[in-house]
Amino acid sequence: MNKIKQFFLKIKPSRRRIIQLYAALLVNSNVKGYITGNIYKGPLKSICGPGLNCYSCPGATLACPIGSLQNALSETKTKTISFVLGIILLYSIIFGRMICGYLCPTGLIQDLLYKIKTPKLKKNKVTYVLSYFKYFLLSVFVIGIPLFFGLAQNELPLPSFCKYICPSGTIGGGILLLSNPNNASFFEMLGGLFTWKFVVAVVLVVASIFIYRVFCRFICPLGAIYGLFNKLSILGIHIDESTCTHCNACVSVCKMDVKKVGDHECINCGECKSVCATHSISFRGEDLVKAFHKKKIEENNQKVESNNNNEQN
Fold this sequence. Notes:
The chain contains 16 helices and two strands. With 313 residues, it is an all-alpha fold.
């Protein structure tokens, strides 16, 4: 009986995993799309979701912020760029890279792939240098090329990251649509570009089994944006410097390429809290919530005590 209990405790999902699952289901809740093979184009698609989730996925109910940003930059004459930047900025200021750790469907898929038991490549000096590659992709493929086409007043926008790299688009917007029998005619439109993107997607999927969050760490431009606001965001990891001994146990246990917990590479997952001997790591606002909860308990106890005294009298 104890062995059975231990087994279920072992496979029990963490609070973070449950939040990830709910978030992924929420932004991919267009069940009808999976059946018909059609993309949802309702009013919700004018709003960017917080995580990287392809617009063309048959289940997607929200737009992808990276795809929306590229299209907006390619259409410089419209006010769309202000709207998209405003939403991304709002997400950044509130959550920072906590979105990567809790709300991004692409991050969840990588977490699940990494759980497959195989030898793992640990972080090192090389992976730390490679972690800056996503900022190059952000500058060139998400901002530079689409903006160039926008300023050149090209008739068609060029969302270059989505078109040439993004594996989320290949899997969600490509393979899932192609797998539906109603879209059999789509196969006639496939060419060398899809083959390239399919190879990129397969490589990243396989790599995610051996390397923790390979896409998030080295490629994702959305994570690069959120990382810039990590220290400024309302929510996220906080270190109490007055009690921290700088033992670096938190940095050592972290699978991301962080130099310090809470920096631009931190996804605010909170796994480092369990190894902090001085309990110096907490989530921003956590202390206020605990203090509020404690105050409420004390007030309730005082009311109960007061009622008991009145009854006795």
